[in-house]
Amino acid sequence: MDFRKDLFEKVLIGDGAMGTLLYQEGVDGCFEELTITAPEKIKSVHHQYISAGANIIQTNTYAANSLKLSRYQLEGRVAELNNEAVKVAKEVAQDKAYVVATIGGIGSIHQKEYQLEDIQQSLEEQADILVKTEVDGFLLETFYDFAELSQIVRYLRAKTSKPIIAQVTLGDIGVLQGGKTLTEALQHLESEGADVVGLNCRMGPYHMLRSLEEVPLLEKAILCVYPNASLPNVRDGRFFYQSNPKYFGDMTEPLVKQGVHLIGGCCGTTPEHVKEIRNAVQKRQLVPVKDKVVKETKRPTVVVKTPDVQERLPDFSKRRQSVIVELDPPKALSHAPEFMKGAQALKEAGADAVTLADNSLAQARIDNLALGSLMKQQTGARPLLHVACRDRNMIGLQSHLLGLHTLGIHDVLAITGDPAKVGDFPGASSVYDMASLDLIRLMKQLNEGMSFSGKDLGAKTSFTVAAAFNANARRLDREVTRLEKKIEAGADYFMSQPVYSEERFQEIHEATKHLPVPVYVGIMPLVSSRNAEFLHHEVPGISLTQGVRDRMAKFDGDREASEREGLSLATSLVDAATEYFPSIYLITPFLRYQMTADLTKHIISKQKNVASVTGRA
């Protein structure tokens, strides 16, 4: 077995997660200590991954450094834990798989829990121990601070001639936290002596594929990816990941076509994911590509100049079809003018309100309060702002809401918010002083003229409060019970996640028709097959029918045809939804507002036609 030769000449399969697999089995605490206290558990994980088809397994040493072990008072056992982890992995692997020694990142460029010097000393101590073992190579993973990763690659290269796999963790598609492009980062790691460079953690296969499309094949180093299973969700205070092994198999060939030689899995992945990767490699006889077409990404630089109570929304649907359209605030300042054009188009199309998310998926965007206020001034569109509990404590939330009221913005959607772990700043704190139910209740308290603490505000706010509704929930009855609790807290109406099944609308109607408040049912046009697969496999709370996915797959690679098909699908969904619901919530994909503007016009036109036929004005 020649590890370096196999890396460069074959498509190899890595293992999947260790920590989250143990976590899902109920294990908590220091996973690295289990190598000594419960070695059979670690051996079992290694066996499962090798049986699933992994050519490479990692030692259970991700956090076996003095700084992270100090949280468990184990900093004096660094050598013991690392040496034993190698011994256990080698015992299981024998001649069936290569063993790489894993070293995990410690720091974050956003949270300075440790000084870089202390971090490097801790990593070097671990590296010195592992270099003396009989591993086949080294794998460096989950480094948020690029300087930290670069330095340990340089240190290891001076200590060993064995293959080094160095993986960065992105802040956004194609970009590291701090603004460095993925191409620049990987080329730098190559220059430091890494043999294999790539990505792990934070993202699923879809976003990693998009990131690698901008990366050329390197002169010396080869590429690897270890994606997360999906975006994580939270259940009963614990993170969990959507199970989607087949999706990993489907994404294997596209990743190989981008130059990837090594594919494994990170958080949430299991032996089933590895098995599907193996099946894809074997059945399609995948081999590394020798050339690729690099996708050019235009990053325009535009200077943006910031220019110097109505009828309640839920009451609209009592007398006519009501349409709310979401137009997400952009991440880039250069896209703000396009957002304003979109808001204007939606207002002219007849939307009753334009709703702006609050850093959805925990990704930093232009502040929705600032953008909503400008939108109201410049276009006359009615802003409906999402307010998430994730980013502000109770003080910040009350201040923010009083600011909304002062600016004349009275329509709000109260949400708990996606955890910071899934977004641009995974090291950031998720505040969660309260959840959406609490926020609804306290907003209604503001409407009574009392602050969150019960103090007299001197005036009453006039918020109309929407609440979120997961219309795709497996147990719709349980979800409706949550809606009933939100109504008790003061919710005036509901806005659902997008629905992609015409049959589902009748089920939702039957389950919610007893509710005394309107339900704005969500519909979001698809723009591509990739978009459809990402939503289905990686976004919690969204599920697409196989028929919808098959229709989008027919036009894979043809943007215009894909968008036409997506709009056609959405139009059919709108027609089906309006048979049961007088309130529709359209969600604009990727600032492509013309799609939702056309759908808004379709709804209004349909309503006028009905009124004409029935003789109603």
Q: Can you describe this structure?
A:
The structure is a single chain. This protein has 617 residues and is an alpha/beta fold. The chain folds into two domains: 281 residues, Homocysteine-binding-like domain (TIM Barrel), CATH 3.20.20; 224 residues, TIM Barrel, CATH 3.20.20. 43% of the residues lie in helices and 15% in strands. It has 23 helices and 20 strands. The strands form four sheets. The chain has an eight-stranded parallel β-sheet with strand order 1-12-9-8-5-4-3-2. An eight-stranded parallel barrel has the order 13-14-15-16-17-18-19-20, surrounded by six helices. A two-stranded antiparallel ribbon has the order 6-7. Strand 13, helix 14 and strand 14 form a beta-alpha-beta unit. The radius of gyration is 26 Å and the shape is globular.
How is the topology of this model organized?
Elements: H1 3-9, E1 12-13, H2 19-24, H3 34-37, H4 39-52, E2 56-58, H5 66-69, H6 78-93, E3 98-104, H7 116-131, E4 137-143, H8 146-159, E5 164-168, E6 170-172, E7 175-176, H9 182-192, E8 196-200, H10 205-212, E9 222-226, E10 233-235, E11 238-240, H11 245-257, E12 260-263, H12 271-283, H13 313-316, E13 322-326, H14 336-349, E14 353-356, H15 368-379, E15 383-388, H16 394-406, E16 411-415, H17 436-447, E17 464-469, H18 476-489, E18 493-498, H19 502-512, E19 519-523, H20 529-538, H21 546-553, H22 559-577, E20 583-587, H23 593-614
Parallel strand pairs: 1-12, 2-3, 3-4, 4-5, 5-8, 8-9, 9-12, 13-14, 13-20, 14-15, 15-16, 16-17, 17-18, 18-19, 19-20
Antiparallel strand pairs: 6-7, 10-11
